[in-house]
């Protein structure tokens, strides 16, 4: 388990895919402002799978959104592969996200009209890769994830576990440095959930990539290399009260 | 991304087909109604356009269009002939009467009396045979367009004897005149025959048809005739347009067609806007995922525009095809002759339909563009 990290990116090669420093997030509702993150420090090392856990409303999803560049924090810094996200222009941030970050969503969010291969190829197609090339690379990734023979199927023709594998293929097809996963097993049965986590675990073994999983699902905590626990917008010690069944099998992580 | 956009659209078949058929129906309604309206307008001009030799029409000052028969004095013909620049001037009778067949069928008829000598006013179709035939006493050349209204059994009208105001008239030949707004069969006789068989009136000269000398401007000639005779004189083009203007300004037809065309536009707007809005709303999560993944707003704009253009062009094509089929079918009905889909109607409808679908698409996509990409992580 680790405490709230205070990583530094000064000097040396990048060892972390993402680093957050003193991240604050406030939402305003009329004149009322609600602070949901209170100066969070966090680092996601390359070649590791990190978990972000905590109760509902603790700020997990907000922190995930900020780390993935889909939400801009009120204060603080976020670096992904050495790039300060707050210094990027909006168009550059979108391009950066497209090329360096992969996304796995709780409800898969596959496009219903597209085949598995086409869904997996979306980040490449969005980045201007030719359709045929993108589909070929997507098929290769799908095959690695055990979906050979399913490339032409539409999402509705696949099981939940298979759909999430397609979503993982979509998250990996452009070889991103950071893969963020929002409750990737929440909609799956235990067996499918294990299969998905094994794929993400394998993906995190790549030394040029980090995987961040936000989850409530304590059945999968054992896949974590490190676990950040968050409560009321603050990272806390990940003690047994937070993680009753969740001692990582991979040893004690450190950022 | 265009391929993805089109697959997204076509993947939702109910909305895709709903959009296409909605746009097709609107296109059909608009182009068909506009084509018929334009056709009716040209009918208003046809009585004048069918008399090709006349450069100027001279009439009672109160006459607004060719079917309004307010006769002028016979002397008008000679006064007009005396105007400088007139090459020739001939009398022309145009009036409504009733024709009765040997079987007792009665039908309204537009009777035209053309100059005995020159036959100016006789349509060009079958002119030689008609010119020969019309010279007989009480001989009539009948426009074949609506002949079926007089003899529904489809018999050849040539040789038939009909009765007009107790006068026996022989159908000596047929011709093919341009259809007119009055929508009645048209019969041509010599001027003297026409004024003889119609009920007696003080004056029977409906119009004086004028041919200008070479080099004389017709508009100037018309002004000169008006100044010297006190009658109303209009060039062929101006008087044809007056027939058209009469329909626009003096009848309820533009309002009626305008309502139908307006409904077509409303159908297009409502169906397109609502369906596209529903499509975007139902795909909001997908668009959110695309935005999170890194699809730019410009790309999303392009996607939605491609989707709207596809349904717009497809629906428009089907609608135009439907109108073309309708007009082709109508062409076989003599009573609907002259209804054409002019290129201006096609271009105008295309611009209108594409404006509607593109406008609706841009409105519906605003929600996506404003949407925070992080929304995809929220429940």
Give an overview in words.
- The complex is a heterodimer of chains A (255) and B (379).
- With 255 residues, chain A is of the alpha/beta class.
- Chain A has helices at 60-67, 90-100, 116-126, 131-144, 160-172, 190-204; strands at residues 16-29, 32-45, 49-53, 75-80, 83-84, 101-104, 178-182, 210-215, 226-231, 234-236.
- The longest helix of chain A has 15 residues, at 190-204.
- In chain A, the strands form two sheets. Chain A has a six-stranded mixed sheet with strand order 6-7-8-3-9-10, sandwiched between helices.
- With 379 residues, chain B is of the alpha+beta class.
- Chain B contains twelve helices and nine strands.
- Chain B has helices spanning 2-11, 13-49, 75-81, 127-134, 147-150, 191-197, 218-229, 236-250, 253-282, 284-293, 297-331, 343-370, and strands spanning 56-59, 86-100, 106-114, 139-143, 161-164, 167-175, 186-190, 207-212, 232-235.
- A nine-stranded mixed sheet of chain B has the order 5-6-4-7-3-2-8-1-9, with helices on both faces.
- In chain B, β2 and β3 (106-114) form a beta hairpin.
- In chain B, α2 packs across α11.
- The radius of gyration of chain B is 29 Å and the shape is elongated.
- The model of chain B has no long low-confidence stretch (mean pLDDT 87).
- At the A-B interface, α1, α2 and α3 of A face α1 and α10 of B.
What keywords describe this structure?
heterodimer; A: alpha/beta; 6 helices; globular; disordered N terminus; disordered C terminus; B: 379 residues; alpha+beta; nine-stranded mixed sheet; 12 helices
Which helices and strands appear, and what pairs or packs with what?
The complex is a heterodimer of chains A (255) and B (379).
Chain A: E1 16-29, E2 32-45, E3 49-53, H1 60-67, E4 75-80, E5 83-84, H2 90-100, E6 101-104, H3 116-126, H4 131-144, H5 160-172, E7 178-182, H6 190-204, E8 210-215, E9 226-231, E10 234-236
Parallel strand pairs in A: 3-8, 3-9, 6-7, 7-8
Antiparallel strand pairs in A: 1-2, 1-4, 4-5, 9-10
Helix pairs in contact in A: 3-4, 3-5, 5-6
Chain B: H1 2-11, H2 13-49, E1 56-59, H3 75-81, E2 86-100, E3 106-114, H4 127-134, E4 139-143, H5 147-150, E5 161-164, E6 167-175, E7 186-190, H6 191-197, E8 207-212, H7 218-229, E9 232-235, H8 236-250, H9 253-282, H10 284-293, H11 297-331, H12 343-370
